[in-house]
Amino acid sequence: MSDRWYSEAVVYCLDIDTFADSDGDGVGDFQGLIGRLDYLARLGVTCIWLNPIHPSPNEDDGYDATDFYNVDPRLGTLGDFAELLHQASNRGIRVIIDLVVNHTSNKHPWFISARSSPDSPYRDWYIWSEHEPADRHQGMVFPGEQHETWTYDRTAKAWYYHRFYKFQPDLNIENPKVRAEVKKITSFWLQLGVSGFRMDAVPFIIERTEPGNPDSPKDFDFLTDLRQHVQWRRGDAVLLAEANVEPDQLPVFFGDGSGSGNRIHMLFDFMLNGRLMLALAREDPEVIIEALRDTPKLPTGGQWATFLRNHDEIDLSRLTADQRNDVLAKFGPKKNMQLYGRGIRRRLAPMLGNDRRHIELAYSLQFSLRGTPVLRYGEEIGMGEDLALEGRDAIRTPMQWSYQENAGFSTAEPEKLIRPVIDKGEYGYQHVNVTAQRRDPRSLLGWFERMIRTLREAPETGSGSTSHIDVPMPPGVLAHRADGPTGTMVFLHNLGTEDVEVDLSILADEAELPIDVLSDRNYPDVGKLDRLKLAGYGYRWIRLRLGHER
Ligand code: GLC
């Protein structure tokens, strides 16, 4: 069997600065994470994705780097980072880092030099226009907070392009020197031992920006080139990309159409993310069934990465207005829960009213669908958000470890914390924390541990092929299956609240001693698969048969 580790991975995403603070300065650090690796190993995580770790003025939470070859001193030293890689590897955990090369911070020495003079060797590392571009007010990613994509720089006496905030000038990827530098950055971190990169903003990286053309052409060859480079440097390195584009545009990000994926290995499934939210809101799996049917076929080696929550808002922009309104009405009804006119800045537990059955259902669904699951820190204990914080910071509060002051995140004075911990109400650390849940096998954390372990015993879920089981179902119920050399798994999810009975006798011929391996409660034996009970918000993972190959 091909050893594509990423197809069977469980990815855990965290920001070092809000995870665990080892030195009491109020900011999380590498040593803090090292101290928590056993927690992640126990949870069953096989790969950690670190949000940006580079020096940065942190105007966009590190997505604005000033040095790609170093780590933010607040987090520790490069030595600490290397130690983290070693300690993670001792526990069988890989580490990937964010590669944010669409832009730099405007305080990056390259940009400071570039704007200082037309003769700077770095001038052409960025994108300039002598005249005010006609599309200056188009293509903003953060509407409401960002008003233009071209800003006039008085020192440079020219306009520079920035797809994101104006303190994030876009690098000019058309410049061969920039390309070489990006490759060098990947080489550096691969050499240190990372297993790959979460590539930020890929559709924008490859844009051949032309002033006045809001629809600039894209240079996909760069992705082919980068993939080659990365793969030669480290054979099992992976590229996991953020490319939130229309589904028909996705295949070219995976490969050039020659059959095997020769560009990005894994793409976040943004389309599925919005549809999962819609299906949960409407208690109707129809849109997931459509997604399973319609998603473009992936080239060999291509893989989806699924998620319910990440570090950004839930982006509902690819749903229709009606669909979006249904999700907002259910999960983000108040103005202050919404962001950029398209999204929700909340964590999942509060969106689902802290209903344990509903939370389990949602995560069971995500983890059992095709692709590699990505889990955001704190979701495994059901953390909430702090809507008093600005924008996306609402969902970036410190990890809640214990009953101790500052949720056990840090020993600093509370006012020194990078962000306040949630210490009030239902989601306050006094109620929601790791220590409490670790002692209680019935806790959400205990459930996540069991669920992830079960998933890892069913590798066909990630690396096999997934399809909808198209037989009549009670309303609200989704039946899907995963097939691979390791066997077949069947999954039932009831998105509605009514108890139902499901008939899957059509599968009886294929079954070899079918058994429930994970479910929301103890159900009667699966029997002949013709009278499968399923409670409201219930789910059943049934191993239909074991394959002969591992
Ligand atoms: C991506 C990141 C987001 C960041 C932006 C600019 O969308 O996910 O957090 O603000 O890129 O780098």
TrEMBL record:
It comes from the Bacteria. SMART domains: Aamy (SM00642). InterPro entries: GH, GH13_cat_dom, Glyco_hydro_b, O16G_dom_2, SupH-like_C. Residues 13-396 form the Glycosyl hydrolase family 13 catalytic domain. This is Trehalose synthase. It comes from Micromonospora gifhornensis. The lineage of its organism: Bacteria, Bacillati, Actinomycetota, Actinomycetes, Micromonosporales.
